Amino acid sequence: YNMGLSEKKMGRFEEALDCFFKLHAILRNNATVIYQIADVYMKLEEVPNQSLEWFMQLHGLIPTDSKLLQKLGEIYDEEGDKSQAFSVYVDSFKYYPSNLEVIEWLGAYYIESQFCEKAISYFERAALMQPSQVKWLLMIASCHRRSGNYQQALETYKSIHRKFPDNVECLQFLVRIYTDMGLPEAAEYLNRLKKAEKQKEIREKRLTTGLARRGSLLGSTGLRVSASRDNSASSGGSRENSAKQSRIARRNMQSNMQDMDAELLAMNDGASQNHMNITYSDPLGPEAERPKTA
Questions:
Q1: Domain ranges of the chain
Q2: Which domain of life is it from (predicted)?
Q3: Which string of DSSP letters, residue by residue, matches 229-247?
Q4: What is the spatial distance between Cα 233 and Cα 292, in angstroms, rounded to a whole number?
Q5: CA separation for the pair 263, 199 (Å, rounded)
Q6: Roughly what angle, to the nearest 10 degrees, separates helices 2-9 and 13-26?
Q7: Which fold has domain 97-164?
Q8: pLDDT tens-digit profile of 121-149?
Q9: Is residue 26 packed enough to be buried (19+ CB in 10 Å), middle (13-18) or exposed (0-12)?
Q10: CA angle at residue 16 from 13 to 22, to 5 degrees?
């Protein structure tokens, strides 16, 4: 068994199969050995059907294993058999209802099938498991909107904004909905959107500046180490140059930080009157075209 694992780790899959088949001849119903055979066949892309056969054999031994059911669902999904994939994903969720990957797949399946209201319960469970992840709440709101429940969608977006006031995507949805409904709150949320986008831009600038400074310091350190290995004289010169470069980088970063703080203050004082792009991208993807009648 260990020899098979070693061959598999080194990418010698045929040799790994030889080891596991010899062990399978001794232990016919050992689930671990059968899994290793199926997994190696998964890595041998030229024989994809073999892996499904072995995983099905394993499923007969351990029918309630949620991870195995998820693996079968992935295989069926890759082969384009959505109905069979849905069936095993449902079984996987039944035995372990806290697998986020399974929850997300089932929610996406109902959305593709135009049953958005059924996807809501799955995304609500995911939101309970990951309360700090805004994407689940955005998906819930989008499902309400696609189901035609615009009032509930609006309330959900407002709740998201209270929890994540700096989330640009949520503000874009709020601006769009209030604008479409012709409500005066659109102007207020548009101003909030402008401030959030400005703050996001400033944070990204600071992050970029910090990474550039870190790279400069690391490069200077590398130069010092390399020079010290060559000779002590050149090492001294390199250290002086590196120190000088570091001081310049620090001064530049401080100057940039001051400029960005000034931009933030100006934005808070009313610089948010400029035209902003309020287009948004639905986290659930484009809506499917409904059939037309004569």
A1: 97-164, 186-273
A2: Eukaryota
A3: HH-HHHHHHHHHHHHHHHH
A4: 81
A5: 9
A6: 160
A7: 1.25.40
A8: 999 999 999 999 999 999 999 999 998 88
A9: exposed
A10: 140
